[in-house]
């Protein structure tokens, strides 16, 4: 149980002028602050989907604005960037803002706050003047606001030439505020990472935290951090809105409610009543009851020692079994023997069935998963027809992301054939033996060293029973393309470990191919190429290409609708420069379509130059995994080809990076 000191100490803070840092610059500061050691410019550029030059310019601007403060970003050649700060409170002030309207993200946040607080229609021209922007810019911001906040929460918005207003539904307005404050919550502190608490005071947040944690300790209950934050904010927003005269009037019937959750919430609110002198009518309590009821984490010892039906419903059990059987049939993985995974998956599906199920949105995890877990995402997506049958809906992108992360963990525990490895070293035996010990220690389930061989024997040694050669010299070792060769440092540094790990991941997926396919270069060369297309929107481009394939009778309407549905739900994994679109449902015939663009367009936060569409027959389904494996699970930088527009240019590039 979380230990908490129930003492609130007021600190006298030195006044600091608020700097006009962009959201990206505040993200850089926060990322560096929460990372030990140095972070490379490449890491930051990949995370934020900008160029290394943009990162360098941002850091230069940050250091200029921070001159004279207690904080600076140190740049060290070959190491990267490191944040040095002697005052963490000053740093926290720097990474938050409340008055900057230079950037769209900040303006949309301000629009949410204004519309949630407004009791009458807001004048658009006055709102534009307040943020020092044009009416045209505000109109664009309002459209983005509608997509991110209005549509997902089914809120009615009335807008005409001069005024804008959202429906006076108090419960929906509070959901908007909850969503706004919970996104980007700083789990190192007690507030949003990038924004100050404009409406809810830090004092109120601290009182809510104190009451909730103390009561959790008394009741001996646990919940995940994201749900704890939602409960803190739900109560704080409730108090703030009631203080403003906006009290929930209608008492709705609870959908899901546990007696212990009711007792817990009542105790928390009684504590706050004594501290804050605030009454909480029944209508205010119902959603808190429901939130806590859905958030309680079952005791792990109890869950593992009792039959699953004692703490989850039969629908979740059926969904879990259907899904694991589908994985076994399609991918030949048997996860039923992994009891820990089974219980975790069972609880996750049960959690998704509850009326309130919050998942922590983390940009770092999300961006990494889209590329690095592309195969796991394919396995996760297999659940969709069963989810539709069980929940009446498909899983959304965040729910699939967490499922793919879980699949990745389960995949690690599958037994794989060890790679027969030869160490070819020019150093004396002690050094070669050390390499062997380190490699087998780092990869005990994947590497089996069969021999230590001097370099001079490379031409006479029989490598026919070898899968991998680790060599300390930079020369060609074997001509057999089926044998992997990695050049390593005699001391086996982190770069070497990473290279071996990447190779292991690639090899793990090769058995999914089901048959031997030619190299990707063959398929790129034989593909149907369209060069220098002038499309400016990814969805329009995708629809146009799919329509063309349908007209050629390569795919049918079902294929088109399934691809567009998937793109709408979660999007296809992509790297900078290219994205791969496919469907595991078989096409009439195998056909690969490649479109290059005159100008790069945005796709899932990446700028792409090339669209690759795979339509695969049933016999060639395994080719999908070969494309994923060799395009996504690699270390070569696709940005080197970002200016290419023709088949000749791309073929030359792929010949240099693909085997």
TrEMBL record:
GO terms for biological process: regulation of DNA-templated transcription. The lineage of its organism: Bacteria, Bacillati, Bacillota, Erysipelotrichia, Erysipelotrichales. The keyword Transcription regulation applies. It holds the Pfam family HTH_11. SUPFAM superfamilies: Phoshotransferase/anion transport protein, PTS-regulatory domain, PRD, Winged helix' DNA-binding domain. The keyword Repeat applies. Keywords: Repeat, Transcription, Transcription regulation. Residues 311-417 form the PRD domain. This is HTH domain-containing protein.
